[in-house]
Amino acid sequence: MASARAVANRTTGEGAFERARKALFEEGISAGRQYLDPQRPGVEDLIDTITAGVRSACTYAGATNLADFHERALVGIQSASGYAEGRPIYAGW
Known about the structure:
Layout: H1 4-10, H2 16-23, H3 43-61, H4 66-72, H5 80-85
């Protein structure tokens, strides 16, 4: 899973450009809604967020383009308990 913490831990020894490139594949738990971030209020930032999600989905499906993704994608429904289990733990065990 490419969580923000996992990406940060994996890329600590790499250069700034490489870390920024790999940060494009960070994930979070999807709420099914997109909101404008007050720190990044532009529509371009919102489109970047959506594009990063599509890019990440393509990597999970092993697709190199949207046509491949259309063929390989499998959509499932997540239950409320599955959503709760997938939430990040902000403090250690």
